[in-house]
Amino acid sequence: MKAQKRFAVSAALTVAMVVTTAQAFWGNNEANPLLTTYADIATANYTDALNDAKTLQTSLKGFTNNPTSASMANAKATWLNARESYGTTEAFRLSNGPIDAEEGWHAEAYGAPEGQLNAWPLDENMIDYTTDAKGNTTSGNIIDTTGMFNPGGEKPTTVNVSTITSDALAALNENGGDANVATGYHAIEFLLWGQDQDYSNFMKDGVTNGALVAGQRTVVDYTTAKNADRRKQYLNAASALIVSDLEAMVAAWADGDDTNYKAALLGNNSDSSKNIDEKTALSQIFSGLGVFIKSELANERIAVAVLTPSEEDEHSCFSDNTHRDITQNYQGFKNLIFGTYNGVDFGAAPIDVMKDKSTLMALIKSADTKVNQMNALAQTSRHFDHQIRPNDSQAKQIKKLKNELRSIGDQMIYVSRANGIDLTVDDVTDGEETKL
Amino acid sequence: MKKIIIVLSLFLSINASAVNKDFFDNVIIANVNQSIDSSTNLIILIEQGDQQAAKISFSNLVRDWKKVEATYLLGDLNENYLDTPRYIDIFHGNNEDIKPQLDLIIESDDDLSYAIYKHSHKTINALEYILFSKDISTPRVKAIALIMAKSISSYLTEILDGYQTHQTQFLKNEQYASAILLNALVAGTYKLKEWRIGDVAGLSKKYKGEPNNHRAEYALSGNSILAIKSILATHQQVINSNKYKDFGDIAREFGANKEIDTAIRNLKKSIASANKIQDENFVGIQGQALYNATNALMKSYYISLMDRLGFVSKVLDADGD
Description:
The structure holds 2 protein chains of 2 kinds. In chain A, 51% of the residues lie in helices and 2% in strands. Chain A is mostly helical. Chain B has one domain (21-308): A middle domain of Talin 1, CATH 1.20.1420. Chain B is built from 13 helices and no strands.
């Protein structure tokens, strides 16, 4: 992803940390209850995301074995469903955890697969044909190249795509630049829905005209069209990578394993050098939540799209599922603040000890209203890419939502302070966020 | 990119008066009104197709807009106005190259009502490109220039309306008003010395030892030093005016005589250095002197004055990217 928080404290995770401080505070070998709640939600959420990804994989196999309009619709439905549970897991990002740690044993052990799972925005021209700004069909992509493929960009390396395998796609992902995305949910999204944006001018909407119309790739691309079999290969290879990456996440957060990341976070790893100092863990989690809601969700995923405005910069621009991405990302943040998941109370929550939570709760209530309105309109009136149009009344509401989410990010300073952790605004803001 | 955080605590124990209505009318409102007048004049000249006069008028708009930008407080008074300056000016705030995009719009026959849909295409930066590299006697180019100028004028009017709506809020809480005012000075001075001078002169962190006058804010139209002088003149309005009670007077009321005197001295040095810049050339000894002077000015606001006034907390984005 574009926004990557680089923590000065991240190196702390790589060195031996002794949990005597935590034990002295909480007594005996009891893990900090906040960390326990956080870790248990991670276990549940990544398990759901994996199961949904497996369902997606199965449906894609069914679709590619027997490509019909019905099996294609089913594949799309399972993709949309898989995004729901993955979307809430994104709140675990930017906290030096296994999903995107930049260094440390856990980065190596679990592969930090975020960039392979959910890289965005992507240059779809690298994957398959599109209609360019002049109305011409593009070529020279992974699908129509049957030998060595050069992804272009900065210092690219060529990859043999005679057969489109998981290894080939992994080798191509972000090869030559961040936009050279070959793997993950959005690559599959493009191969199922196809192009939605009119590159000549998104206001013209000439490729797939209509406020409630997403990409319109037809099943013919998987039956009689040239390279149909290669598209099938691509879907199956990409979905296999998603499943294997999420299996790694489930392993990292699994119960009953005293060698994994969850055990280290809770101070119970059998290799004590891997155990994470409690204050360090809480600091990284609170900071990560702030950066995620403020810089990643509010700035990269909403502000860039609505302030430009730009359809290309909406998160799920082929399926027009951006409203759900925003909703679930926001829900994931709330899950961890309130210590709940799917309506179930998982235990002690960061917000519990805040004496004055009125400002935060008012912001959340107001943001809830705007998120609900965005969803309702996306289902009945116009998708996100039409809501951000300059003259649409909803554009102002989405800008307000962006401002509220950024304020909620700043509120993490007070949430963390209530829990004994001092953070500054700098700690809850990605210094490399896009300036608009 | 580096983010400097400045924390500003809001004068918990201070009860004396701060900037008042005279200041608000003479600086904030007067500057916005002047910029609206400039934009209106520019619209008329574009409509007349007088490109040479429009270019001169554009310089006036640059001068007056920079004054508004230098003390932009409206986003602090109402977050709905946080993004308004971005619709007028994208200097250092937008990674896209709008020039080829504007060329495509000019070359296409798409209806302009939706061809120019991006906010960045209607900014003062886009208008500079059109007025100083295209021929507005061409009907489509002229129409594009008019859309841009009218958009800028419309947002300036929106800013005026916003200030008038929130005038009471600004004056009611004078302590908060003073806090956001000083914060604006600090933020503006950082951008002045780092982006508008340092990046050009090869003195910023990003471009250390790599001077390039083409990085100047208005390199195409040659209005970069005018913009800098205008920003510094606005600071003069804020801290050293004898026409109304200004922020310098407030600082003295709080015993920060030495600190405000230092700031005024550094401001005068900055203005003198800016006056010595010839032909928009920031490279060399004159650019270095201007950078040093504005750096000293920022420190006198950020370190000395804030500290003396008990300001402890508030966020200042100081982007060195």
